[in-house]
């Protein structure tokens, strides 16, 4: 399995040939200028919530790849308003699990806010747990530290994508606690550096994780890692 990082919280999973894109925000991210959105093809797009920095390129990528978009009910309604056909939208809700050709995806709790770019209510913000070929990956989305994360320990998470930028989400110190709650030692940092309030000192941040006995990976934009 492979993961390609496109900046902010946008990642693409390659699950044995099935491309799963999460929170597509590339065009308006100055740090991702090296990425050509026209080259991205996805089979599925998952949205954690409707804020612009998580959905900006959804419609473009969906159209050029005929991807299926998965989101919480209210955010899914906004997706349809962008011209995505009903049969290419899967709406579900917190606690629900999708059974898809590449594996299962459970929608889980996140603590944040959620509105769509047009100012409408977007439902709850969420995270996702992917179950693929015996591996479990947790994409936390935009979230604060929450005790609800303790409920995820039972899934034996192999890799967790956690926000670390602070200001709008958890910071590194809280992400270390989150990693303890979910009992996962392998972390990929997301939601940092794109805007001044969430700029981090990478070496200092890594040292916080090192001190806790955790592996923190901060891939470069466009970098692919295998896990």
From TrEMBL:
Gene Ontology molecular function terms on file: hydrolase activity
Keywords recorded for this protein, A-Z: Hydrolase
UniProt KW Hydrolase keyword: yes
Superkingdom: Bacteria
InterPro entries: Metallo-B-lactamas (IPR001279), RibonucZ/Hydroxyglut_hydro (IPR036866), UPF0173 (IPR022877), UPF0173_UPF0282_UlaG_hydrolase (IPR050114)
Annotated Metallo-beta-lactamase domain residues: 7-191
Family: Belongs to the UPF0173 family.
UniProt-listed HAMAP family: UPF0173
Protein name stated in the entry: UPF0173 metal-dependent hydrolase HX018_18770
Origin species: Sphingobacterium hotanense
Lineage: Bacteria, Pseudomonadati, Bacteroidota, Sphingobacteriia, Sphingobacteriales
């Amino acid at each position: 399995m492979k993961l390609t990082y496109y900046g902010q919280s946008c990642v693409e999973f390659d699950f044995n040939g099935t491309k799963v894109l999460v929170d597509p925000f590339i065009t308006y991210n100055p740090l991702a200028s090296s990425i050509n959105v026209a080259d991205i093809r996805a089979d599925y797009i998952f949205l954690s919530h409707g804020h612009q920095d998580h959905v900006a390129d959804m419609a473009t990528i969906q159209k050029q790849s005929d991807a299926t978009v998965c989101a919480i009910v209210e955010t899914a309604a906004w997706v349809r308003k962008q011209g995505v056909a009903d049969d290419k939208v899967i709406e579900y809700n917190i606690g629900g699990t999708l059974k898809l050709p590449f594996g299962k995806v459970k929608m889980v709790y996140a603590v944040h806010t959620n509105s769509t770019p047009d100012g409408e209510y977007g439902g709850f913000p969420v995270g996702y747990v992917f179950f693929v070929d015996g591996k479990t990956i947790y994409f936390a989305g935009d979230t604060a530290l929450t005790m609800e994360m303790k409920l995820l320990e039972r899934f034996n998470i192999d890799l967790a994508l956690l926000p670390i930028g602070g200001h709008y989400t958890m910071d590194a110190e809280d992400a270390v606690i989150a990693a303890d709650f979910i009992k996962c030692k392998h972390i990929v940092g997301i939601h940092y550096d794109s805007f001044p309030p969430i700029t981090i000192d990478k070496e200092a941040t890594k040292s916080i994780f090192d001190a806790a006995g955790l592996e923190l990976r901060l891939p470069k934009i466009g970098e692919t890692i295998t896990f």
